[in-house]
Write a structure and sequence with these properties.
By secondary structure, this protein is mostly helical. The chain has one domain. The protein has 21 helices and no strands. It has helices spanning 2-30, 35-43, 53-56, 59-79, 86-98, 109-121, 130-136, 140-149, 154-179, 186-203, 220-241, 245-253, 263-267, 269-289, 296-308, 315-331, 339-347, 352-358, 360-374, 388-419, 422-431. α6 (109-121) packs across α9 (154-179), α18 (352-358) packs antiparallel against α19 (360-374) and α19 (360-374) crosses α20 (388-419).
Length: 444
């Protein structure tokens, strides 16, 4: 059994590493003569939200950077000697996705060092906060903005990055209690709070700055086909590899996806791969039919969706949320093809557990509210929190976790009252209202 376990760990890590190496090789092939110059521009970019590396450095540089950052995640998993599970796949693919717009191997390094320092001080194995470390690189633009945007140099930027990495793992459990797992991007909420504080402090020492919009469309067709084939390969692999696939996939579809829910442990990797491919195709279809573009940020959104399809997202719970974002984009001023709302539909699926736990109506309304909120909260942190949608989703999830049970109870009581006979209503009125003892309502 021991040798089989070692072989399985090796196989899963190799699959992830092979995907990252494929991205690097693909980047070198598509732009063989210029990718290194583009990579230099990527490394020297402040990387504030939304900075499309396909526009900054070219497609080749963006692909190479994504593969390099993803390999860092795979390397950390291997060094910690753990079997990559759903959470680690989500972490690696999220790092890979955001390396198309905001992350690079240099601006994530101080934050990862801060997480490691935290594990040493608290005497914890680094493996226990590994996934937090991967997701905690959300604040990577803090480092690059200090170096290249403000010109303060690497020394203060590194110290601030280490401090951020040290603080995030202690803040994350507190943020989780606000929404009780209804926001899959809990680190996005945590990074949003800390990023807001960092931005406020920076504003006292430097000129004002904020989110930017660098958005490409010229490689949309190429990237669209690349993703289409990637998601298809996941579905094909699941069909070839899987036994009892319908039964196992039914386990995923019946799950509410509340954080943390690891589909690889719940239903096995074949069913999880199928879910990843299908969730990817849903996001892909949304971008295509809403008039959006396949570029660095949207590729990041789709890879993050696919990663979290191993850790909480599934078609039944993401569709209501995306429907809410679509409805908002149709009646609000920005429109469906707006970069912000296109990303809101993809990353807003962090609210999938709202659909799974509270129902599809709650999921639809949460998506609607999220679409409006996410367009404004970026200015709170100056574009330095790449998980802006996770920040917004955390606020929305907190609202629904606290308020929805009471609202549902109110409508239930109204419905029961309307179904009573008139004489029963009169009797209740004469007897006066019955006061139930106050009982805390937990979202199941």
């Amino acid at each position: 059994m021991g040798s089989r376990r070692v072989r399985r760990i090796h196989t899963e890590a190799v699959v992830l590493a092979s995907f990252e190496v494929f991205l690097i090789c693909l980047g070198i092939i598509v732009e063989p003569g210029v990718y290194h110059d583009g990579l230099r521009r990527v490394f020297m970019s402040p990387g504030l939200l939304i900075t499309d590396y396909v526009m900054v450095g070219g497609l080749g540089a963006a692909l190479v950077n994504a593969g390099m950052v993803g390999l860092v995640g795979v390397l950390l998993t291997t060094l910690c000697r753990i079997r990559p599970a759903g959470a680690h796949v989500a972490g690696v693919l999220t790092m890979t996705g955001f390396a198309f717009f905001g992350k690079n191997v240099f601006n994530i390094a101080p934050i990862l060092a801060g997480f490691y320092l935290n594990s040493l001080v608290r005497r914890l194995p680094f493996r226990e906060i590994l996934t937090d470390a991967m997701f905690g690189t959300a604040l990577a633009p803090v480092v690059s903005q200090m170096v290249y945007g403000l010109g303060w140099g690497w020394a203060p930027a590194t110290l601030v990055g280490i401090a951020i990495g040290f603080l995030l793992p202690m803040m994350a459990p507190v943020m989780y209690r606000n929404h009780n797992g209804l926001n899959l991007y809990n680190m996005g909420l945590t990074a949003g709070v800390l990023g807001t504080i960092v931005f406020a402090l920076k504003s006292g020492f430097a000129a004002e700055f904020g989110p930017v919009l660098i958005w490409s469309i010229h490689r949309s067709c190429w990237l669209g086909w690349m993703l289409f084939l990637l998601f298809g390969s996941m579905c094909i692999a699941s069909a070839v590899w899987g036994k009892g696939l319908p039964r196992n996939y039914a386990l995923i579809l019946s799950s509410d996806g509340r954080l943390p829910t690891d589909f690889s442990m719940l239903a096995g990797w074949p069913a999880t791969l199928l879910n990843m491919g299908l969730v990817g195709y849903i996001g892909w279809a949304y971008v295509l039919f809403s008039g959006g573009a396949f570029n660095g940020p949207s590729v990041g959104g789709l890879l993050t969706m696919v990663g979290f399809a191993a850790f909480g997202k599934q078609p039944r719970t993401i569709v209501p949320v995306m429907g809410g974002v679509l409805a908002a984009s149709l009646i609000m001023v920005w429109g469906t093809a707006s970069p912000g709302l296109q990303l809101a539909a993809l990353f807003g699926t962090a609210l999938a557990p709202v659909s799974g736990v509270l129902g599809p109506i709650a999921g639809f309304l949460a998506g609607f509210v999220h679409a409006a909120l996410v367009m404004k909260v970026g200015w709170f942190h100056g574009g330095m929190n790449l998980y802006n949608n996770g920040f917004s989703a955390g606020v929305v999830a907190t609202l629904f976790y606290g308020a929805w049970p009471a609202v549902a109870e109110l409508f239930t009581r109204i419905d029961n009252l309307l179904q009573q006979k008139p004489e029963s209503v009169a009797d209740n009125h004469r007897q006066g209202p019955r006061l139930d003892p106050e009982v805390p309502v937990e979202a199941e």
